């Protein structure tokens, strides 16, 4: 339970709805900022304007997936008000407060560092990334179905990277009957891919692997699908980049070749915001419980 813990949400999207409901169910005191256009009332939560006075009582501050932009602006779809997290606001937080976000740009990292406030980037955690790989894979499969005129069953498909997202992506495609080749960079990933029934290759051989593909899913956040690689692909190929921006595909050259290529980061929040919100709510509530228990033991 989170009795006595005050959690403030600033901005966000549909994921936040699941998050603050879960925390309220655990008896946290929840305050929402930037949700004035939200039609449904939620029991156990209150809405307040953004002010230093409010943040002085916060034990946790929850920001959207990308905490702020480089000017401190906070993304918020449930308000027309512009929300900006200023230095004055961060300075008002108690020193024991924790700031949660998906990923932090330097602006937010520097503010929290300057004022010695703990910052938790949830998307950097292995457990969050693994849970999020499920809606990511489902969303990528949805895009593949929408943008091809063939079945995934029997398709010639490449997945680049055998990290947390690549592993789930390859396994999901294999389950649908695709012929899955997986590009890896490490010997242990080559061995694991072989054991799981994939057809592994080292990414240095990519140009030789793409001559007959229907689909390519990239999860490696560096330029790997270069113009030289794309030049070897058939025009029917569809490329879906799941890596963080700017991705790992030469989109300019793909367009020049007439090959369909799409950058698709952030799929969990797009295709399954309820599930994505539950994942984040579970992790935040777990972390807050651990922090609260630790403080109680130290008192």
Q: In words, what does this structure look like?
A:
The chain has 12 helices and 14 strands. It is of the alpha/beta class and 299 residues long. Strand 13 (238-241), helix 10 (251-257) and strand 14 (260-263) form a beta-alpha-beta unit. Helix 1 runs parallel beside helix 12 (273-298). It is elongated. The two termini are 18 Å apart. The mean pLDDT is 93.
Q: Could you name the key traits of this structure?
A:
six-stranded parallel sheet; alpha/beta; 299 residues; 12 helices; 18% strand
Give a brief outline of the structure:
This protein is an alpha/beta fold and 299 residues long. It contains twelve helices and 14 strands. Helix 1 (14-25) runs parallel beside helix 12, helix 5 (126-146) packs across helix 6 (164-175) and helix 5 runs antiparallel to helix 12.
């Amino acid at each position: 339970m989170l009795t006595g813990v005050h959690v403030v949400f600033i901005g966000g999207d549909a994921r936040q709805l699941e998050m603050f409901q879960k925390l309220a169910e655990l008896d946290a005191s929840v305050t929402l900022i930037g949700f004035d256009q939200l039609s449904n009332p939620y029991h156990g939560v209150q809405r307040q304007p953004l002010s230093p006075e409010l943040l002085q009582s916060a034990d946790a501050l929850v920001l959207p997936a990308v905490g702020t932009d480089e000017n401190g602006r906070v993304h918020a779809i449930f308000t027309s008000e512009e929300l900006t997290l200023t230095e004055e606001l961060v300075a008002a937080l108690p020193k024991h407060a924790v700031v949660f976000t998906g990923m932090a740009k330097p602006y937010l990292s520097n503010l929290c560092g300057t004022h010695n406030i703990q910052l938790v980037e949830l998307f950097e955690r292995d457990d969050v990334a693994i849970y999020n790989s499920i809606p990511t894979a489902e969303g990528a499969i949805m895009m593949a179905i929408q943008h091809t005129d063939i079945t995934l069953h029997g398709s010639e498909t490449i997945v680049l990277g055998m990290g947390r997202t690549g592993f789930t992506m390859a396994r999901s495609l294999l389950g649908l009957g695709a012929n899955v080749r997986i590009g890896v960079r490490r010997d242990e990933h080559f061995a694991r891919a072989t054991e799981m029934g994939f057809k592994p290759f080292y990414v240095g051989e990519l140009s030789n692997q793409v001559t007959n593909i229907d689909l390519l899913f990239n999860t490696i956040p560096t330029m790997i699908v270069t113009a030289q690689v794309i030049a070897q692909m058939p025009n029917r190929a569809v490329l879906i980049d799941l890596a963080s921006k700017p991705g790992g595909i030469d989109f300019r050259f793909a367009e020049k070749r007439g090959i369909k290529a799409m950058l698709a980061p952030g799929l969990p929040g797009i295709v399954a915001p309820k599930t994505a919100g539950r994942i984040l709510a579970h992790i935040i509530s777990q972390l807050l419980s651990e922090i609260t228990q630790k403080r109680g033991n130290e008192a």
